[in-house]
Amino acid sequence: MDQRRLNILTASIAAAVLLISPAHAGLQNDVPSCYAANQIAPVNHIGYTRLIYVLIDQTVGWNTDLEQSILDNLNLNLVPGTKFVIAEFSAFSQGRYLNVIHTGIIENPMPETQIDNTPINKTKIFDACLMDQLPFATVLADRSVQSAFQASTSSLNHSDIMAALQMVSGAVASDPASQKLLFLASDGLENSSVTSFYRHGSLRDINPEAEIQRAAVAGLFGNFGGSKVYVIGGALPGAGIASSAYRSPETLENLKKFWQDYFQKSNADLVEFGEPALLEPIAF
Description:
This protein is an alpha/beta fold.
């Protein structure tokens, strides 16, 4: 796609976003549907088969490299047949809250059997629409992530990670997509009324079993419907942890073990826990 056409798409996104009601922004598909525009019913009724839910912890002071890694991993998975949700959370007790910024669907093309039964002029218009839909959706998703980064700060005293995860799990589990992936951008350091993984500006060497019991008593497990999970930013220095603070391998392993157990009990599979960067790109 040439730069002029991309600029037109970017301007169109900005105009479209302004028309979205604040009460509904993010809670519905913010990417124009090619099926709806051409009055064509998608074969699987929803137009997509994959869901990627990006949840960004705004209590983390993200560095440029990790911000770019989050965008790169997201963009690798923004392909036809994918629904994306970009959400942010921070410290509920300090006036912050979970917020879905934008949701979008990049629709699947029509299968051959449907193409054969669709007028050729309508098929051409539909295909041209799909060509524009992917870059439109990508720019919208990237802007949403960048918006979450801009509001992020490591100065907040609390981080309600488990509460945020529990809140989004229902939406993930109930989504009709056959493949689901949660991409959690967070340091993984719970610091709430339930428990704290900090001690004197450093990562506390937690007991995973004891912390899981605290989560169980507080009722903070969710149900992610068998989703894959990737975490980037684990125990990130500079985000509540002094950059000079030592993080022993055992301490990091215990943190990873807690989140493995947490997601297992929340009907999800933790594929990788980045400490802080991921070693492999996220994939369904």
